[in-house]
Amino acid sequence: MASAPDTIHMRDLQKEINGTPILGKIKRLREPSNSRLLSTAEEILLLKGSKLNGCKFPPWKSVPSDDDFLLKKGEDLFCDHHELHLSDQQCAILDGWKRPADALPPPSMRSSMDTVMSPIMDSTVPTDLVQDAASDCSVVASLCAESARVERGHPRILSLGFFPHNKHTKSPITSLNGKYVVRLNFNGCYRKVVIDDKLPVSKTDKILHVIDRNNPALLWPALLEKAYLKVRGGYDFPGSNSATDLWVLTGWIPEQILLQWRDPNARDVWKSLYNSFRYGDVMITIGTGKMDRHTEELNGLESEHDYAVLDMKETDHQKYLLLKNPWAAGTSSRSTKIPSSLEFTDTHKSSPKDSDQLVEKAPQGTFWVTMNEAFQLFESLYVNWNPGLFRFREDIHFAWRVSKDFSNTAFVDNPQFSIFGKAGEATWLLLCCHFEDAICFHTGDQATGTDLSVRGDTFGLISLYVFDTQGRRVYLREPSLQRVPHVNCGQTLLRFNPPSSSLYTVVVSGEDLESRSRNFTLSAFSESPSSLSHATQKYPFRTRITGAWASTTATAGGNPDSPIYSQNPQFRLVLRERADMALLLQTSVDSLPVHFKLLHGKGERVYAVRRIDIITDSGEHRHGSAYAELNAFLPAGKYTVICNTFQANREAEFSLMVDATSEVTLEPIPREGAGRSLMEIPGAHIGPGANRVAAPIIPKRIVRTNLVAKFKYASRPLWFDDSVQDDEVRTRSPLRMSLQLGRRAGKRILATSNQGEYADPENGVRIMDFDLDPAMLQHHDIWLVLERLSGTASGTDEHYNVQLFNSIPGAITTGAWCVWEDEW
């Protein structure tokens, strides 16, 4: 895993004593702003993102005035007419929405207090934030992670966007009129969120909002939670992941590290995080996967639950994380003590006088795990990086109409962007899916503290790929230069390390996304300007046609070695002038191996492929899609494209796309016999001792016909040598078919199959589009002759299916087959 950017050359060097930062003097890094000029379409997209869950959240323009929070004479306290949604379980215990004086401390806690406290905005004792009857563990874990950072001596982050606040200390202060404004980061930019100070109050001992157990009258965390939940749809929010929540709350760059994925290991992840955590440039949370009750009890953890990382410590032999469970009722069988043998070698090094404190129990709901245990027990590590680590940022906003029609292995229709990467300078690429209206479907109660709701604003899986293609659009998923795994959240981060100073192509990938339009923002964080823009298209002309392989219509002929290969869908490609081109075949089934050939076929159906006929093909069969590029200026003319699956009779829909430097057209070539009347001549076989048979053809009117002869089976007479094995009987001899006028010396060959050459009859031998006229019968008869190569000594009886495809029904009659000898 790549490490974080070097923070030393991007900040004033931190003063240290014996390797320990003087935390109180750490300088806040300046967050880079978007340096790219947005298009009108992007501006409109950001405005559309302002409407969410029946509310408007306009882009942030400026800090609100102090007058916005004054209670003027004759005015009532501010009231937000949009009431946040509650779940059925929350509604059942709701006593009403109340102002802070009646909401904090919660009524259920007042009876145990010696004195009644008034709501406060700051506290001198450490915070202990927890969730109770709300299911937003990811949000509360995020608040805990930021609070722990502040308590380690770092500047406040959450209160920077909370108004009103003290301009000097940046601490939240009380609004006199009950109105609060919060700056949150979502849907492509910072946005203005307005709330009142009313909180949901419970009539039981359950609490419906975040609460500080050490400071039960502390107000601002509950208000910040309310602002966030207003954006996400209400207090029935089932949680997302804390990287997403901190991205919205702070604008810090989110990263999800999949602990069970193949790449990360505990040592590398620790190394990438530890120093940044000391300097306060990263906030960390961690989440479990789905576990059954037995596994929960065995590990002392909650299923699908987020925990805050409050501290990191290391020795020469071990690395430790201090975790906090944000659920108030959560229990853990894990030890809350620091191991007494722990000898710290980091900046928190212990001394004999405080060794007793080190072995005391950590605060309620917290416990220590080793980094190795974290990799074994948890599913994801959620990391949020200080954007001030970078000097430049560029954003590009776009809509993507996702289609599930064809394979995910092709990227031709995916959003693609060009970016300049400087060798030796990491560029971080962040993809964010915009929030949409939240629709909740409840499947159970919240008694266990787990998130049982299913939301309508699910994202599916998203990922980013980088290609070394000079900023030009790519067609296939591989070969990529760098990629990140698909994740099931609204953001994914790719740390791109350019091998050279050049333009690169960034591609957005998605799996299991709904087939509709979604809005996204791609952000690039770097030390140098990255020049983020839409990827360029090499070919100005594009045409696309759809088709299908189907066994019911005999259009699934399989690979080129199949005897029925020619039955595959074929297309006429017409170039009006010379051109370079790229061809892409996509299927609706990702697991289906496919292939195509571009042939010198004059735009006609091809029945036998010779090597000399092949212009190019897609190489080995590929699952889901096949691709070929031709940079040879193909001359103007008509060509044939054959699309196939590896196995015959595999059914699927497909799309064939051609991009070219000049105008190109595609059209399907009709199947054999399409639009003509089918006529069969039964009983065609060449018996032992013969090598030719013939049948008379009698045209009644002028008619155009195609003639096809295909091998059916071979048999051997009972009187013949029975020592020959059965599989030898199934062999077939090469066949030639011809139309002859007359016989003996005066005969004339009217037409012949395969230019007079013998061919394999299993795929069929053909005489294409020949005109028959009754006038031909004035002097001689017309004969259809089948001739096999094996001769009279083969001893087999070969049977054939002979068909005529006539332009006029009933225009031809035929006679019986007979052995053909020139001398009779």
From TrEMBL:
Region feature (Disordered): 330-358
Biased composition annotated in UniProt, kind: Polar residues: 330-344
Record domain Calpain catalytic: where: 97-387
InterPro entries: Calpain_III, Calpain_III_sf, PalB/RIM13, Papain-like_cys_pep_sf, Peptidase_C2_calpain_cat
Entry keywords, A to Z: Hydrolase, Protease, Thiol protease
Family matches, as SMART domains: calpain_III (SM00720), CysPc (SM00230)
Sequence similarity: Belongs to the peptidase C2 family. PalB/RIM13 subfamily.
Protein name per Swiss-Prot or TrEMBL: Cysteine proteinase
One Pfam family linked to the record: Peptidase_C2
Molecular function GO labels: calcium-dependent cysteine-type endopeptidase activity
The keyword Transmembrane helix is assigned to this record: no
CDD domains linked: CysPc
GO biological process: proteolysis
Naturally occurring in which organism (per UniProt): Patellaria atrata CBS 101060
Gene3D superfamilies: 2.60.120.380, Cysteine proteinases
Start-end of Basic and acidic residues biased regions: 345-358
Active site per UniProt: C137, H305, N325
